[in-house]
Structures are given as structure tokens and as C-alpha cells.
Design brief:
Conserved hypothetical protein from pyrococcus furiosus pfu- 392566-001, ParB domain; alpha/beta; 9% strand; 3 domains; 5 strands; five-stranded mixed sheet; 13 helices
């Protein structure tokens, strides 16, 4: 049964929340989450489902583990949450699906999530239906996982090699891999730059192994000056795009701050907020409204 959307946000005791699908997180990224919440507050509530128990209700986490752990790190005892209706199995699957559907998920995350659903007894057809992936894709990923082909799996995720070709390479003896690439070329699955990239990946797999770690005693490949220049140019373009988006966001924030400053001088509006117990705001925003300082990103 799919989870039903909640109608309002509730303050939930943190010690009553159980994380069904815990994940290990990058500490640097986690610190950024904590600092961000400490400065500007929680922008998106976590999602939980309520379970009735003799000692009072408890909650299973559906999504928002990072935000929940940030609240714990900040010493909070309650966290804003959307409460939905779903059983424990639905919550677990929803958490796995969320991880699979993330826009910038890492290959290892996809591996863990599909493997986790298989270990819990879900068939490949069920995994495909619940994640929105095709059954053929789930089957191919499962085959690569079972054979430890992390390098090929990452190449599939990055779009360098079609999944069917990656599976064929994984099931082919090393001396026949070039024949598999030639067959893919003849079928129109690998053309031009993709064929060259596939050859590089196959060569890297032969020299470094199926996994992503570099074997002990093996040196890293030197990067050419041309590759460094291209990487610098690509990075510069990404930063210019980021600056443009940041400027647009800054302009919108200036409008919001000015609107809040004017509302803050309206006694009737303030009285309504106090009646609804909403008279406080994040310290960062309050300082800017009082001081009239420029919004900085």
C-alpha cells in the first residue's frame, strides 16, 4: 500500500523515531547539513509513519535521515515531520526507492539498494515496479553486482556503455572481450566516441580489476596537460553557471526579505503569528531583518 500524503507538519519526539534503512554518510557533507540547519532552519520536514504501541505512539522514518541526524547533532529533542500512513515494509521500500531515484546517486548506492531489496525477498519484477526501473535494467544491474563488476556498473550509470553490452562483457572471457565490442559496434550499440570510451574502460578493467579501488602497488595513471585544460574549462563553465543561478536566487531572496521586513512592521500580522505560536524565526534571518544588511549567499 503506498504511503498517503500528510495534511500538516507535526513536531515529533526524536527518541520515538526508528531509522529502518540506516546509511553511512560523508562526514563533510553531513557537517554542511548541520551548519545549514543551524543557521537558516529546516527547509523540508522529514517524513515518518506512526505506529501505535502500549507506551504511546512511535514512528518509523520514511525519508530524511540526514536531517534527523542533524537535529540530533544540534541537541534538539523534537523534529518537524510529515506523518503518512504506511506499514513498516512500505516505509523500508520507500526509503530504498528514494535512494535509487536520487538525481546524483553514487554507483555504490544503487548497488546497495537493489541488493538490499533482493535480500529482503523482492523479485526483480517487483523491484522494477517499485523503483520505476525496467525489469531488464534491474536484471542487468543484478548480474553485474553478483559478478563484482563495479567498474562496468559505474560506466553504465555514467552512460558510457549500454547495460546489455556491459553484461555481455562481464560474461565474456578476457580474450573475447574485443570480439564483444566489435559485435556491439556492428549492432549500432557503440559508435564513435562511445566505442573509444568503451575500449578504455575495458582496458582499465583488465589492468585494474573489476572493482573501483586501485590495487596495492599500482601507480595512478598520469593525466595529460590537454585533459587538465579540458577539466579546467569544464569546471570554469560550471562555476559561471552556478554564479548566474546564485545571482537569480539572491534577487529573489532580496524580494522575500523586503516583504518580511514590511510584514514585520504590521502589528495585526504579528498578532496573528503570536496566536499561532509562530512568532520566532531563524536567528540568521532575524538579524538581517533587524539590521537591514544585504542578503548574501
Amino acid at each position: 500500500m503506498p504511503a498517503l500524503p500528510a495534511q500538516r507538519v507535526e513536531m515529533i519526539p526524536i527518541d520515538k523515531i526508528k531509522v529502518l534503512n540506516p546509511r553511512v554518510r560523508n562526514q563533510r557533507n553531513f557537517k554542511e547539513i548541520v551548519d545549514n540547519i543551524a543557521k537558516i532552519g529546516l527547509k523540508k520536514p522529514i517524513t515518518v509513519t506512526r505506529r501505535a504501541e502500549p507506551g504511546g505512539p512511535s514512528y518509523d522514518l520514511v525519508c530524511g535521515q540526514g536531517r534527523l541526524e542533524a537535529y540530533i547533532a544540534l541537541g534538539q529533542t523534537e523534529v518537524p515531520a510529515l506523518v503518512v500512513r504506511a506499514d513498516e515494509e512500505d516505509c523500508l521500500v520507500a526509503s530504498l526507492v528514494e535512494n535509487c531515484a536520487r538525481r546524483q546517486h553514487q554507483t555504490i548506492d544503487l548497488l546497495q539498494d537493489i541488493r538490499g531489496m533482493e535480500e529482503r525477498g523482492y523479485s526483480q519484477a517487483e523491484i522494477a515496479r517499485k523503483t520505476g526501473l525496467t525489469q531488464k535494467y534491474v536484471h542487468g544491474v543484478s548480474q553485474l553486482i553478483k559478478q563484482g563488476e563495479l567498474r562496468l556498473l559505474r560506466s553504465v550509470e555514467s552512460g558510457h556503455i549500454p547495460l546489455c553490452v556491459a553484461v555481455e562483457i562481464a560474461e565474456t572471457e578476457d580474450h573475447d572481450v574485443q570480439a564483444a565490442l566489435s559485435s556491439a559496434y556492428e549492432r549500432g550499440l557503440l559508435k564513435g566516441k562511445k566505442l573509444l570510451m568503451a575500449r578504455k574502460i575495458v582496458d582499465s578493467r583488465r589492468r585494474r580489476g573489476k572493482g573501483l579501488a586501485i590495487p596495492e602497488g599500482q601507480k595512478r595513471v598520469r593525466i595529460s596537460a590537454e585533459a587538465l585544460v579540458r577539466a579546467y574549462q569544464d569546471d570554469a563553465e560550471r562555476k559561471r553557471s552556478l554564479i548566474r543561478r546564485a545571482q537569480a536566487t539572491k534577487n529573489r531572496l532580496l524580494l522575500i526579505v523586503e516583504a518580511l521586513r514590511r510584514l514585520g512592521s504590521d502589528e495585526t500580522f504579528i498578532a496573528v503569528l503570536e496566536d499561532e505560536d509562530l512568532a520566532t524565526m531563524p536567528q540568521n534571518l532575524a538579524d538581517r531583518l533587524r539590521g537591514g544588511t544585504e542578503v548574501r549567499l
